[in-house]
């Protein structure tokens, strides 16, 4: 009896191991075929797997401000105008042509004909009107990015008076007052035109059933795991997209993501650590792809908290920080030392401004002049998360702590989890703090007004910096439609900010991606999300 | 029917009755435990700073919008009202709505639970198979080289950071040897069609043996990483109790009778030594099911641990509350099952009314 049961056990063990061995050989051949997996019919690889650190929170791009969402929706939805492949110049999108009235109050868009949404309904002027009506009747909770147009329908600041369909292929926007970055706003990913039929069908669930006109159609979303989109066969640009399928996979840990890339499980990864660049370069199957920089990482000096309320103290701190060594140590040399609150790629950048040189003697002299010869103590808050503009905040903070120590300022490094960090910063509870910003639309207003105008105190002006003269200039610049005059205004604004020194602008970094060598035409966009229309495999 | 058999049947019936009463009583006692749990979790997460409205609206939000959303989410109401609303909906079987995805948690939570369950079951299978046997053999040949090596390995297993072990595993078995995939649950280029969300089962149900193999391969690295700690604990526990039992008189008698050593060890000793080990197994399974955040993060495993972790980062109160509640319930249930198992393993254990 007992012998028999042992025999049964042995036989079943044998069976299981044979079965496993069988699986093994089968998957081994899969592994051999790894050189070209994801083929739909034999030869050419046409499924791209994109590895990233976080999942999207919504696939209805207007309902979120969170960048991971746009990486996907940029491929499903299209906007009336689009940015250049790697810059924020304006090009035709769903609108073939557009013109602006002389007073800057009427914008007329001629729409592309014969474009259909993925659900088969027609894209036309009514669809555009439907979308804008939907957004302007919402609020900041529902459609947060719509505030780019100054607010919602009932708000006084709302710049759009009316959106109307002149004929099926012409849409007109009538503004209450000119808005200089209007066209740049229209091209932002959140303003992708959605199928009205699908929005009505799904209601709030549209955020997980997106339907647009873009080169890829939504297939499946397994939360925290992957999002799959596939080629839209009826796409209006013939012969595009080149890929058949894109799978956005979530692999939270940066090193694990790089391992997955090296093993061929994913084809592209974002958020590569600068310190891993050498590993990628040493692997002949991989390549580095650089994202053009449109960000700023900075140390905010909360201007209403003594002794940082003293301009001389803030200038002294600016003199005490050695940006170059920070860039070499933590950005792999791939960042530009910042002297203004916006990056040079943005029109209106003031290159004439002289950076506060790294000069400890000068810094000490300024502190003495301010009456702090013996220095003082303050908190220096370091971000708990990695961002493209600040990959290793705590280590950078240590370097800064060291530098400040040399001029007698004792900085105590503090940190707290990210949601709390933002809330405390918003409430102005920090002395000095590290933060940054990635541009939304390549307009100077999106940096300077958003981050440093007195109107933005309580939202993004965490330094609580307020300057009446600057405010006047920025408001004027918002409605000034003549580009050269506008640039002059922003140049002046940067001078004022430089003098007042509410920040230590640290860096404009170059975010890195890594990809398999066989990935072609991957052009990262400075805004952080790109359409993978032309991407293909070798 | 002979009277002896009838008696036996009656006493069996009585025993089953006692067990049933015991189970029901234990289940009822779960209710105050779970209510207490909700209160504790509620208190803790509301005590930490960080406003969900701020997180939802993101870095770009205006103060006014944050205030509006706070009101809309009901977060400006007194905490006891928020708590009673939550309990009320719980009693209706409603776990709430996620602030982040705005979907019902009842539906959302299942795939994560299933993913974690699959990983846990495989990890515990490995941990028990290796751990119990290593413990037994160590005790059998105590003070032999095997014993020393196994116990040193167990010590390393307990103290090894999973984070490091996971990344090293990926490097060695994926990148250098190319045997195993680094992350995820499946080949995303040939995804599994989910039925139960336990992929080993789903692939078998669909007769996709090739996919079953792939899923199994994806399980190996994370489940071994996850298994190290319980494996080590189980091995040490088994060894300790086995040593104890093997010194007892009846074992000496069994050996004196000339029984084969294998049977003495695996039948007579193990049966008596297994009770404490079973307890440890129960506790460890509960712990693993609670979500192995580190393992799930490194291996990109979409399990309950990451679901909760992301929810915490997002201050998604309903998900945190309900997620912890579900995990706590599972934990308590597993321990109930272990308690009931004792009776089957050791007939001397009886639960009285």
Explained architecture:
The complex is a heterodimer of chains A (about 550) and B (about 350). Chain A has about 550 residues and is of the alpha+beta class. In chain A, about 30% of the residues lie in helices and about 20% in strands. Chain A contains 15 helices and 21 strands. In chain A, strands 8-9-10-1-11-19-12 form a seven-stranded mixed beta sheet, with helices on both faces. Chain A has a six-stranded mixed beta sheet with strand order 14-18-13-17-15-16. The longest helix of chain A has about 30 residues. Chain A is globular. About 5% of the residues of chain A have low confidence. Chain B is mostly helical. Chain B is about 75% helix and about 0% strand. The longest helix of chain B has about 45 residues. Chains A and B meet through helix 1, strand 10, helix 6 and helix 12 of A and helix 2, helix 3, helix 5, helix 7 and helix 9 of B. Chain A: This is Solute-binding protein family 5 domain-containing protein. Chain A: It holds the Pfam family SBP_bac_5. Chain A: InterPro entries: Peptide/Ni-bd, SBP_5, SBP_5_dom. Chain A: Keywords: Signal, Transport. Chain A: GO terms for molecular function: peptide transmembrane transporter activity.
